[in-house]
Amino acid sequence: MTAETPTSSEQLEVVLAAAQSAARPFADLSPSSRAAALRAIADRLDDAAAELAPIAERESHLSQSRLSGELGRTTFQLRLFAQTLDDGAFLDARIDRSDPDWGMGPRPDLRRVNVPLGPAVVFAASNFPFAFSVAGGDTASALAAGCPVVLKAHPGHPELSARTGELVIKALAEVGAPDGVFAVIFGDEAGRTVLRDPRIQSGAFTGSIRGGRALFDIAVSREAPIPFFGELGSTNPVFVTEGAVLDDADAIVDGFIGSFTLGAGQFCTKPGLLFVPAGAGMEEKLAARFDADAGPGAAPLLNDRIVAGYRAGLERLVDSGLAAPLVLGDEAYSDAPTPTLLSTTLPDFLANPDLLAAECFGPAALVIAYDDVSELTKVLAKLGGQLTATLHARKDEPIAAELIRLMSDRAGRLLWGGWPTGVVVSYAQQHGGPYPATTAPATTSVGTAAIARFMRPVAYQNVPQALLPIALQDVNSWGVPQRINGRLEFPAEV
Amino acid sequence: MTAETPTSSEQLEVVLAAAQSAARPFADLSPSSRAAALRAIADRLDDAAAELAPIAERESHLSQSRLSGELGRTTFQLRLFAQTLDDGAFLDARIDRSDPDWGMGPRPDLRRVNVPLGPAVVFAASNFPFAFSVAGGDTASALAAGCPVVLKAHPGHPELSARTGELVIKALAEVGAPDGVFAVIFGDEAGRTVLRDPRIQSGAFTGSIRGGRALFDIAVSREAPIPFFGELGSTNPVFVTEGAVLDDADAIVDGFIGSFTLGAGQFCTKPGLLFVPAGAGMEEKLAARFDADAGPGAAPLLNDRIVAGYRAGLERLVDSGLAAPLVLGDEAYSDAPTPTLLSTTLPDFLANPDLLAAECFGPAALVIAYDDVSELTKVLAKLGGQLTATLHARKDEPIAAELIRLMSDRAGRLLWGGWPTGVVVSYAQQHGGPYPATTAPATTSVGTAAIARFMRPVAYQNVPQALLPIALQDVNSWGVPQRINGRLEFPAEV
């Protein structure tokens, strides 16, 4: 399949049939075999870094240094999922031995393990041409779980998608993974067709609220609905108390500007709302940083779709008259916009949350001045689910504990100080949150826990040892942790 | 609120406001406090057994012995969730300490724990007036997770629901749980209203495919969709090989008849499809067991809705001409029907799966004769998701391993021998499966893992110890297991 040409119905049928055929043999691979496959993909991508970088730069307008870091993150992520497979805890193996004296009556021998859901369709994002695209987090976690992946390429970087897909397929073939485990398709209608196909058992997506909701609606309105893991949108509020301003206003100003303009503001974790005490001089400091020409300048956006969306969002905000321009240059609406800062008051914000808290994907943010810190407790109830929420405060300010609690009701990740851009891939990461941050609040799309999205448990009752999945056999030849009669046990070190 | 009168809009508003107010204080209770609440509910129910039993018998037409067993199962389940809370693993506490040398760049201190989703609406089932009703599995697991519960009573047992609800509320008050943590509401429209309310964060349901799908559609079409855990329908295929027939045909005949007629066939795990080798005499043996008047007789169904649905389903099957009556008495269509067995051939079954594999909730089953055992591998692809699938075979029959694998693609629980009715509540249970068995295949509605449905993870980045949730603090005063830098660690025994 060549980039930019939509995948034809005939080609889709080949892809779907191959994915279905590959599902059983791929599921039957040992975790260590699948780990080898992930490592092979990471190796091939690292080897091809010099070839991929110019394509990515041309198609995404992102800088070489940013893209190089992102590719490093991508291959690190693949290898971390390989380690997750080696660890074995992702299988959640449980063994209840038969027990005639079990409290509700005799208990049979019952054993439970996670199995792959089956073929997944993954919709790539525009803003991370590596880390949330062809070989990105959704692909890595679905393959780790044992699910074939049909990857719908993002139109923003077609050539990079095609080439990355070739490398992934080649790496999988090298380690002997079944044919059909991975394919890249092109075209929005092709993506929807695949999502509707009964052979597909789950969907994953990173992108806009509108696009993600449309796909979610397809997934849940199928004759047999399937899980859909959409990471949609977030404005990532940041609350700054007077104590924090007194401690280091300049660091907050610098940190905020750095974070909301990073990558031209094209991150789902961009801090779009900054709540500051009124009269503390924060607006003036922020504006001054740009007036002095020391602030970040213009940077090109990813593609025309993003430019159009950003312009429309910014115009809606400015034209509303509810947000005053704090920083708004002549080039604010260009294809390579200069950063924009708007400001408003807390009462106006609380009265117009739908307008003022809408995500504006690009280098813009809204500064909200509050008179009484206790009013901040009203903000979160006005916001939808968030990927992140950040608090800059002093530990001894009474509002801190209350805000942290309220933030935990609305967001997937809470930050004390610092800035939400930069999502580390690790064991304890949670990149998710209530709708519209995601369509599946119990799951994460970053970090090792992401593998759980693509699995479901199966219990085996009185099944003979030889017919049990290996992870549930008493000999435990894979050496995975097993929860036996309710207590977790680890295999002896060999 | 009194039974049988639909809950008014004004009353619903009171219930929803109270549930929302209770969410935070209930979430803040320690696991051991919530465990105490569950144990108090179990104690109050046990104390009231003599009072509840006659109400349950009158409203459900189930036998005293069956109801007594079910109440025992219900209080056992509450206490097992209490134990799950004491264990602490359900929190999945993870701590990644800051690490400047982390592979993708410096890692902040990142900690992750499961928090309650918020208020849940639980739709009670008709066929388990205790175990899947007011104080049943969904309520127990949602309360265990820390979520207030609005319980929509099943119209089949309104008085029992009202009285059980009073006992639950009283028990919760005794242990100091916040007001509003639990309420019982009546009326289908009231249930839908609650499901649509933005204060409700999840739904759970046990019942029919049609009813469950309608509620699922409401949950996912809200402005902010919420997780909906529906346990809908299943025909629970049982495959019998020639080897198994040779080993003990009579035991299979007895076991099957006992299982499909248990509780008048009103179990979601009723084996509705029995695949037997043609010409092995199984049909004759089954029919003979009823001819000899030794088989189970008539038994009343739960309520008029069930009677109407059972009659319509049975008529559709018989009138189709695709299934021949094997056992079909004069009373087969009455309010207290005698059991019915129909028979067909595998080719006819494979050609008409939608008609012949439809769930017929009541004491009926279909016996399918096959000529070639290898043809059984085609059956599962024709069936939707199943709660269970059962295989009676010899270990050395080559088909056994293949069928087990295929069964694992379609069902939540696989049985080797035995019968699917009787779902033990334990650590390794999985009561779920792909749609239409459930609307959430990664979850279970029976067993300790059911608690995970009502939680979502939250990550805390660089948050000071005193502001962290207790389960994430270094001192670990609750003594929960913590996964530290990717390795699970247990607190030292005190």
TrEMBL record, chains A, B:
<dbReference type="InterPro" id="IPR016162">
    <property type="entry name" value="Ald_DH_N"/>
</dbReference>
<dbReference type="InterPro" id="IPR016163">
    <property type="entry name" value="Ald_DH_C"/>
</dbReference>
<protein>
    <submittedName>
        <fullName>Aldehyde dehydrogenase (NADP(+))</fullName>
    </submittedName>
</protein>
<dbReference type="InterPro" id="IPR050740">
    <property type="entry name" value="Aldehyde_DH_Superfamily"/>
</dbReference>
<dbReference type="Pfam" id="PF00171">
    <property type="entry name" value="Aldedh"/>
</dbReference>
<dbReference type="InterPro" id="IPR044151">
    <property type="entry name" value="ALDH_KGSADH"/>
</dbReference>
<keyword id="KW-0560">Oxidoreductase</keyword>
<dbReference type="InterPro" id="IPR016161">
    <property type="entry name" value="Ald_DH/histidinol_DH"/>
</dbReference>
<feature type="domain" description="Aldehyde dehydrogenase">
    <location>
        <begin position="8"/>
        <end position="393"/>
    </location>
</feature>
<dbReference type="InterPro" id="IPR015590">
    <property type="entry name" value="Aldehyde_DH_dom"/>
</dbReference>
